[in-house]
Amino acid sequence: MDLKLKPFDFAQAATKAGMADVARRVEANTRLASAGSAAAVEKPSFQNAFAGALSSISQAQATASTMQREVQFDNPTVSLEETMIAMQKSQLGFQSAVQVRNKLVQAYTDIMNMQV
Fold first, then answer.
1. Which of 16-27 are b and which e, b meaning 16 or more Cβ less than 10 Å from the residue's Cβ?
2. CB 30 within 8 A of CB 44
3. Cα–Cα distance for residue pair 50/93, rounded to 1 Å
4. Looking at the predicted structure, is the pLDDT value of residue 38 above 50?
């Protein structure tokens, strides 16, 4: 059985998942890596993409927390609707990260349990 694997486009997947800011950063990093010198070219990796996604999730959680605090202090510039949307975005991002982690752990477990 011959399997042909297509390269994974993380930027496209992030865009489909509603994380356009992550997709833009991945594309920017890819362009910077390709425009860099030949000796110091850093190729995009899953580790860098996942670290970027985690930092984006962390930033979304911090933003949601700040907005919650501002709503509690009756700041007229922060609306309840924007705060609820920010909270939902951060919750979805966190749930996605947990699911990716679970899949990675399951894949590692499956590989370690293979008989050679």
1. eeebeebbebbb
2. yes
3. 12
4. no
Question: CB-based burial of residue 33 (10 Å sphere; 0-12 exposed, 13-18 middle, 19+ buried)?
Answer: middle
Rounded to whole angstroms, the Cα distance separating 44 from 34 reads 9
Tokens 């679970």 map to which residue? Answer: 102
Instruction: Enter the DSSP assignment of 116.
Output: -
Tokens standing for 34? 């390709």
Largest Cα–Cα distance of the chain, in whole Å?
64
Q: Which residue has the tokens 């919650």?
A: 68
Residue with the bigger pLDDT between 93 and 29: it is: 93
Is the Cα dihedral 15, 57, 46, 105 positive or negative? Answer: negative
Per-residue pLDDT at 45: 84
Q: Is the pTM of this model over 0.85?
A: no
Give the HSE-up count for residue 13: Cα atoms under 13 Å, Cβ half-sphere. Answer: 10
User: What is the spatial distance between Cα 25 and Cα 10, in angstroms, rounded to a whole number?
Assistant: 11
8 A C-beta contact, residue 87 and residue 64: yes
